[in-house]
Design brief:
126 residues, single chain, elongated
């Protein structure tokens, strides 16, 4: 079982090994989806979608390669939050399909990363 120090330092544990976290793989796919979404999403602002999708994907690769370090999970949480805000920040809140795409992907990334961030502490023995 991992010690509290190992979890807080972001060291790989038996539960979290590099390139094996399904949550980080899902976030990588969500980032790729958001990057490609302007191809089929009406009203999508390509610059915002490609930028936010790229950021999400890069952070997911970081999380995968570092065995889901707490810092990378927090960065995924932040990128999900910014993606949720992107329709207002990018001025496309009135473009229904594009706004909903950003909101849904942002919420998914935020929730998945939040669960990943909380999971290591739950796996420790009391």
């Amino acid at each position: 079982m991992a010690t509290r120090e190992e979890v807080h330092r972001g060291e790989p544990t038996e539960q979290h090994k590099a390139w094996e976290s399904p949550r980080d793989w899902i976030n990588l796919l969500l980032g790729a989806y958001l990057m490609l979404a302007p191809s089929w999403t009406k009203g999508a602002v390509a610059g915002w979608f490609v930028m936010m999708g790229g950021i999400i994907a890069i952070i997911a690769v970081w999380a995968l390669s570092s065995a889901s370090s707490p810092t990378s999970e927090r960065a995924q949480i932040a990128s999900g939050f910014v993606t949720i805000l992107s329709p207002w920040l990018g001025g496309f809140v009135s473009a229904g399909d594009a706004a909903w795409t950003a909101w849904l992907v942002g919420v998914a990334v935020f929730v998945i990363a939040s669960v990943s961030n909380a999971k290591p502490d739950e796996s420790l023995e009391a």
